[in-house]
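Residues pack. Consider this:
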Amino acid sequence: MTDTEIKNSSEEKQRILITGITGMAGSYLARFLLDNPAEQRIIGTYRWRSRKENIEDISDRISLMECDVRDAQSVRRVIKEVQPHLLFHLASQSSVFTSWHAPQDTLTTNIIGSINIFEAVREYCPSCRILIPGSSEEYGILNYTPADENHPLQPLSPYAVSKVVQDLAGFQYQGSYGLNVVRVRAFNHTGPRREPCYVESNFAMQIAKIEKGKQEPIISVGNLSSQRDYTDVRDMVKAYWLAINQCPPGSVFNICSEKVVDIKYILNTLLSFSPIADKVEIRQAPSRLRPIDAPLVSGDSSPFRTVTGWLPQIPIETTLKDILDYWREQTL
């Protein structure tokens, strides 16, 4: 389907644009929207090198447009053709670990990419509602727990810096130009299809490989004492939908489960689902340690819950079992 056909076929429908639709959150959001009986057209952006396995089973029900958010002209072309009513800006470099090794790419993708989105929307469809998902990483080492939206922003990684700037740029464009930007600060969220640079997915991948004899029975780990607030991605995308529709532009809301577990619990829970649990060695690898790591990330999402009525439904144990089963399918 051509870009012009996308717009023409959607004139009577709500046009929803998801940047980064091939990623974990983007692909789950697309599925959530497809289950919604409302009259809508879902358009997603991808980069030429994006892996499309996450959306293969729904590719005939969505429209795809190639776009690199770092390229202003590419973004302008998409926004001009689609003129979305709702825009979920999920295209990003989203790994804290990767950001230490690729700080320039992280800052360019997350900051310049967002500015390109804001500028194109301002020119072609200024009434569009935009969701900007920030991160609990913006808070850094917490001064108090649980962190609310008024906690100081004190980023500790290139990724966190990029999210702070993206967050504040959304605030600025709403205040300066009246764009309908809704900002959320999403705490850790995960699920099947999570890339293996993330700790819980990496552990599951290692376990699946050991089970099938593709890795020696040693699990490499980093800091197991860090404590994090996890939400299942399938609950998180429901929160995104509620946020873009119910939260006032210019506002910012934490989204989190309000339940904290340490990384050792994540590992032990994954191992509890495997017959290799008593046969593996846990070995810390210096390469897996961050230069600096917040010991505790704990959030308060009560304002968001009050406005939207959202409550997470999927317990962390179910999430981890699903991640492990996903990697068992991937490890052939």
The longest strand covers residues 40-46.
